[in-house]
Amino acid sequence: MDAIVLGGGLMGAASAYFLARRGVRVTLVERNRVGSGATVASFGNIRRSGRYIPQLALARRSLALWGEASKMLGRDVEFRATGHLRLIFSQAGLDEMRSFAEAARPWDLDLEELGPKEIRSRFPGLGPKAIAASFSPKDGSGNPRLIAPAFADAARRLGAKIVEEADVRAITRVVSGFKIETSKGDYAAEALLNTAGAWGARIAAQFGENVPIVAKGPQMGVTEPLPHRILPVVGVWAHDHGGGYLRQVERGNVVFGGGAERTDVSLDTGYATADPARLPGQLRALLPLLPMLANVAVIRTWSGCEGYVEDGLPVMGPSATTPGLFHAFGFCGHGFQLGPGVGEVMAEIMSMGRTDVFLDDFKINRF
Ligand SMILES: Cc1cc2nc3c(=O)[nH]c(=O)nc-3n(C[C@H](O)[C@H](O)[C@H](O)COP(=O)(O)OP(=O)(O)OC[C@H]3O[C@@H](n4cnc5c(N)ncnc54)[C@H](O)[C@@H]3O)c2cc1C
């Protein structure tokens, strides 16, 4: 079997790798550089807490792959299972956390509930006014710059062809499958996987499949290096204090997001910018999580173009109109954790026609 993967973000690169591992002849076509879309902009959160419950099977599969990724790909992708702490500032937050913890248990997600004293003793400096927190010890973070190129390079070593900076001019259905005309030549294959991220709906529309999606840019920032003290990734329940989140990287800088509206992004340029006017409000929203942020310098802000589907869930699985066409796009700001799992599951569906991971809620014809 042969396949073209269209779009070289984390989803495309991981799919190319797992397809190649199954012996499929793969060509990955990316119009920029591999991993330079939403993937590189990611905060790097590898979090299961707070996810849509029917997505936890996929998230569990993906977390296991994150754990193996450095060995599997022959390169450190900086996955660190530092744990994920979610602070609670309101009764609504406590209720939300407890009902999620109950529902998530069958998916091997055991959340520890911490009281204020435990938060202070185990995580000094975090959430002084928090009334409780959840702690998920197996979650953590990975490096958004490293993961997609690592998958693409590993796919290449297995025989996949990785074509970058290839402007796609036309996609045509032909008797034997699909033909893609690009600025770097034409490619043909039996199967086509649409992993075009925020642009995925444009590809799907060419095959009569309409997905309500908007392109948005979450705003991110990073501080100067601070004395190292925060191990886990930190977030909040119930969107308290604007739903901010942060983590400290090994050299001390605190990376943060949330606490600000996402900006609109034009799909024609795909250029997502952080809005400096939103930064003070964003930092204020983060102070209850980490008061130390009051007196630090922010050295960089950024954003990225991500596709948000109307119901907040991605599109994954076979096309409903066109045999041989598959989709995995629109990950609504939470695809970084899922990426390796998406790649493995899409390779199973494309090469065997099935997977044991529940994907029914992500079908393209649900709209
Ligand atoms: C600022 C930000 C922070 C985030 N933080 C987190 C987080 O902490 N945790 C988490 O789980 N998720 C996070 N996400 C979401 C996560 O990064 C994305 O869901 C994930 O990276 C999506 O990967 P992708 O491969 O679908 O898309 P992308 O990485 O955008 O890749 C799609 C690729 O398709 C290419 N493409 C599009 N059209 C064509 C075409 N016609 N021809 C060729 N190539 C094409 C694009 O150039 C692009 O490289 C964040 C997203 C953003 C923007």
Automatic annotation (TrEMBL):
It comes from the Bacteria. InterPro entries: FAD-dep_OxRdtase, FAD/NAD-bd_sf. SUPFAM superfamilies: FAD-linked reductases, C-terminal domain (SSF54373), FAD/NAD(P)-binding domain (SSF51905). Residues 2-348 form the FAD dependent oxidoreductase domain. The keyword ATP-binding does not apply. Its EC number is 1.-.-.-. One of its GO terms (molecular function) is oxidoreductase activity. The keyword Oxidoreductase applies. It is an enzyme of class 1 (oxidoreductase). Keywords: Oxidoreductase. PANTHER family: FAD-DEPENDENT OXIDOREDUCTASE DOMAIN-CONTAINING PROTEIN 1, SARCOSINE DEHYDROGENASE-RELATED. This is FAD-binding oxidoreductase. It comes from Rhizobium calliandrae.
